[in-house]
Amino acid sequence: MKLYVVGLGPGDQGDMTVRALGALAQSELIVGYEGYINLIRERFPGKEFFSTPMRQEVERCRKALEEAAGGKTVSMVCSGDPGIYGMAGLIYQLAMDYPPVAIQVIPGITAACSGAALLGAPLANDFAVISLSDQLTPWETIERRLRSAAAGDFCLALYNPASHSRPDTLRRACEILLETYPPNTPAGVVQNVGRDGESYLVLSLEQLRELPADMLTTVFVGNSTTRTVAGRLVTPRGYRQA
Amino acid sequence: MKLYVVGLGPGDQGDMTVRALGALAQSELIVGYEGYINLIRERFPGKEFFSTPMRQEVERCRKALEEAAGGKTVSMVCSGDPGIYGMAGLIYQLAMDYPPVAIQVIPGITAACSGAALLGAPLANDFAVISLSDQLTPWETIERRLRSAAAGDFCLALYNPASHSRPDTLRRACEILLETYPPNTPAGVVQNVGRDGESYLVLSLEQLRELPADMLTTVFVGNSTTRTVAGRLVTPRGYRQA
């Protein structure tokens, strides 16, 4: 009757919380996208696993809710944080059909936080988080949000900066930001945080526009106060005029 | 020569990551605001602690850097995530004066994530994070960011919604959002996440305007798609028109 919606963080188990590990240990069944299940399968031998490929989110959530309604303790796992582009919202929407299930969301380290930690402190002042994927949000809405964020001088974390169907997404997003932000605005990219091949790159917004990106990349763009300090991206908060 | 900048998450040790706990265990000296040091002192007997009251951020960071430069393994602790209104940026700015120190930021669960998990899934689509404290950011900038975020139909997480010097901060912020968002826009408030007295409240933006707030509160405001589902705040992502 219990369904945990568990954030796995960026990928390395060291970035999971004690509570997330405890929920998985207590669960009889662990459900998730196959790429995430593969990250944790070895650590939890003897558990039952159920995974589906990408884009079968509704089926995956229904399976988790059905099994929990049937009496099992279930964890639905998400990379990063389940509340940020994760499954927490869909679980709550579908849960109306499974009234006895008690749902508990266990937060995880989202890519904005894990990527920022690698790059320095790019989000240390007010920031906006925007997904550049137009699978679930119309592209016009994404453009409007990019323009609004630039109008507010927000720092930015951009999720899903490239897709197979739309290879020029990041370029287009940078062009919109460049309507407001100067070309030398500091920006950064992280790849494979917490996994093999972890890397980060600090560059300018103008250089970012020319960069190829894949789905494991998270992109950061500074605001008018962001600077590079010893190769790191830092947005000051006013404690010191450095 | 090693300085960890460690996110403690919302307060309960269950919300700390494995890596954060490991960094504290390895450290000889743990530095931080006294309120945060008190959260972890008992768990790490035998460690040296150094704490300062609020607003002595520069002194605190210099102490951590000095001791690390002197050869100690040091952790500077922050509540939530050190990169989000935490000490990571200031540490990098000051670190230029202490070149031998190797800095590693260990991310933590920020209030946007821990509060959202309690409320439902209010940030499951694009969102902005704004601090309402005018200690380090001019109030005009905060107003501009609130208006820009509303123009972009962002969901919002608002940090530091009240201060002693400015008791009407949250009311004023709500009035600005109400220029764009309808009065019945779903909103939510969390208090003392991960601590004694943890609570959450789902209400309308209009009701939020009338609410007293204190510094341990984080405030959430939905966008045009956010709704309440079985008493929780949910921003759908388009998987399903529920």
UniProtKB/TrEMBL annotation, chains A, B:
GO molecular function, one term: precorrin-3B C17-methyltransferase activity
Database matches in Gene3D superfamilies: Cobalt-precorrin-4 Transmethylase, Domain 1, Methyltransferase, Cobalt-precorrin-4 Transmethylase, Domain 2
This protein's UniProt keywords: Cobalamin biosynthesis, Methyltransferase, S-adenosyl-L-methionine, Transferase
Domain of life: Bacteria
One Pfam family, short name: TP_methylase
E.C. no: 2.1.1.131
Pathway(s): Cofactor biosynthesis; adenosylcobalamin biosynthesis
All copies of domain Tetrapyrrole methylase, residue ranges: 2-208
SUPFAM superfamilies noted in UniProt: Tetrapyrrole methylase
Example of a GO biological process term: methylation
Matches recorded under NCBIfam families: cobJ_cbiH
Protein name, per record: Precorrin-3B C(17)-methyltransferase
Protein species of origin: Candidatus Anaerotruncus excrementipullorum
High-level lineage: Bacteria, Bacillati, Bacillota, Clostridia, Eubacteriales
